[in-house]
Amino acid sequence: MLDGYKSLTIKSNTEISTNIFEIKLEMDLEKEIKPGQFFMIRGWETNDPFLPRPISVADVEENTLTFLYEVRGRGTHIVSKLCKGDTLDILGPLGNGFSLKGAGKKAIVSGGIGIAPMVYLLKNLEGEIDFYAGFRSEVYWMDKVKEHSNFVFISTEDGSVCHKGFCIDEFDPTKYDEVLTCGPIPMMKRVIELCKGIVPVQVSMESKMACGIGACLGCTIETRDGMKRVCKEGPIFKGSEVIFNG
Amino acid sequence: MANAKVNICGIDFKNPVITASGTFGFGREYADYFDLSRLGGISSKGLTLNKKDGNKGIRLHETPSGLLNSIGLQNPGVDAFIEEELPFMKEQNTVILANVGGGSLEEYLKMIEKLNYTDIDMIELNISCPNVKSGGMAFGIRCVDAERVVKEVKTICKKPLIVKLSPNAENIGDMAESCVESGADALSLVNTFSGMAIDIYGRKPVFDNTIAGLSGPCIKPIALRMVYEVSKRVDVPIIGMGGIMDYKDAIEFIMAGADLIQIGSGNFINPTISLDIIDGIEDFMEKQGIRDLSEIKGIIGRENLC
What we know:
heterodimer, A: 246 residues, mainly beta, Elongation Factor Tu (Ef-tu), domain 3, Rossmann fold, 2 domains, six-stranded antiparallel barrel, 4 helices, 13% helix, B: 306 residues, alpha/beta, TIM Barrel, 10 helices, 16 strands, 19% strand, pyrimidine biosynthesis (chain A), FAD (chain A), oxidoreductase activity (chain A), FNR_nucleotide-bd (chain A), transport (chain A)
């Protein structure tokens, strides 16, 4: 049997960049958590907001579970107001996680808050890894990325830090044996196009979720093998199987 | 310990808590979190004759204390259900309802014929799914349309027949009476309310189908009123649902006239919510000195009938 929702105590909840928060939770149970997996989280006891929020695992250290999240709506806003000593209800880990089996040289491509699952991935991925991180304006979490990467390429859309433009502007897929990506849909779509026929891609998909465990079919996406649940068969998919709508 | 057992249509339920169609799949995902034999029953994901992929685009949109959904009856089809899902469900030692949707009378009848020869316990006839053109809601708005389908289905159905009503019916009391006169052995209500949401920046509806189905605690007071009204109009067992989140909500539905209740969106908030509700009902009975739920079933408004 899997655990249902558990209340974990918050160790810290810090705004590390505008609207970007890093929350650390005390986790005494040793659970196996794979990079790319997520938890459903809930930081309020009322029926409003109604649904828990899916948030991917940003890091797992001894007794500490870390999430990196962007304040987007009422749920994440409430969570951002929680303080040290408060509790957060979590369900998970959920989903499949990245495959760590690939050999050779790898590239990680992230856009904005899509960087959230990537540090924990970096820590668990073997071999030489180049990291391409794109941001709109403010850059965050780069110290941790630099620690574990062979090469780091940073871009901002407004040029306020490093390269002005997109992180894939200087991304050459022929240099890699595997590419792993998470970020806005247009960016992931472009990465998959660039890599098509050259190098396999693992892509972390996002979708609105209700149950988070595969029952409601609300987060389903279209793939070349039919409809798949982001929460159960995903959130990590092969780049070649995902069909982007619109 | 108080006894929360209920019998309707000759079928014994361990307790009045059934998980609602479309919120519980075929039980597999929840079986990872708790022993499904604790449940009074499980209503299957809405079935159609053939496999359905469901709707494209956004399928969920949160609302204040609720949720709009536009899943579109994604399901493996009735044959795959019978072969691959029903055996698992029957192993769970709880009452199994097959929720049957259909785009035409013919589709409903073909499905009933197939299910007649399975060991499904009851049929829940879905004339109330708002999310597909052929989801059955067309039959759930006007009494004449419902009568036609319920009568025909009843003629061939070998299982106890529950008709699941739409709150979008022209008049819920009249609809309930029509279905019972046409042969429904029991009624379940309510399915989701037709609703919508607009993406103001994109200047378009959030959902590809524009209209979606609203559920959750925001609909509870209306659902409760509908169960109350229906229970005063018909004499068959009633399964009440609509935003039940705890045992207090469940007891309200029972007092309004429901024999059994279903838990829908609440499953999304907590996969083991049904267990909390079952425990809560039994504890309430114990503390209130209630030996059988029939003592409180429909007590609201009963005096008006005498």
